[in-house]
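Project standup — Tuesday

K.O.: blocked on the structure for the chain from last sprint. Re-posting the sequence here as requested.
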Amino acid sequence: MNSRKYHDYWDENIDKWGEFYLDISHGHEILPGPRWFTGMYHATIGRLERRLMAQRYARTIEFLDAHIRPGIVLSDVGCGTGIFVVEALRRGAVVNAIDFTDMAMEMTRANVAKHCPTGAVRYYQLDVQQQPLPKSDVTLAMGLTPYLTDLPAFFSHTLSNTGMLFCLFVNPRHWANRLRARLPMLNVRGLQCYAVEDVDRLYAQHRWHLIERRRFATGYIDRAEHLPL
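H.V.: unblocked you, prediction finished:
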């Protein structure tokens, strides 16, 4: 997928992805391809994805509990429906809610208004591969890099403006992603994979240090921090 197609996909499906986290059936996500394939995908792989989304939610909440306290500035990049924007606000953070689609910004505003109307939140509609992020203490990117085609640009626009990154990556060496590479029709969302050595090289270029890396699903979750001069 190019950036235009990613934009259109998320405008069409961001509300369905919000329901993934809420553990509602996600058999109505709109995927490219014939109807029979979409139905088969939701009935098989989709069931596994549902469980993994619940686990990803739990891992992110665990991170917020450990690292977010009143006054911390957090950037939620690819904020989607604003689920983690709301959770960070509940913990007293000042939040930069960042996404590149109209629908995501609309849904995030609505969820903040409903759950944390007095929360300190700033909204930024931008493409993180083209524009720098606002300053923050912590950056959350839990569903972003699988849809980026230019990871070096994202790192350049992010790492110079934050102190900690909590980020999910898809690993090209996982057997499921090797299978997707051989059978592109299985890669229904056009996921982008990034090898650990490439990510580590980018950390080093920006004087960042990997604090923790945990395997997750077909990839890994990193917690990394900026090295002091």
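K.O.: great, moving the ticket to review. The chain has one domain: 3-226. The helical segments are 3-21, 35-43, 45-67, 83-90, 102-115, 151-158, 175-182, 196-205.
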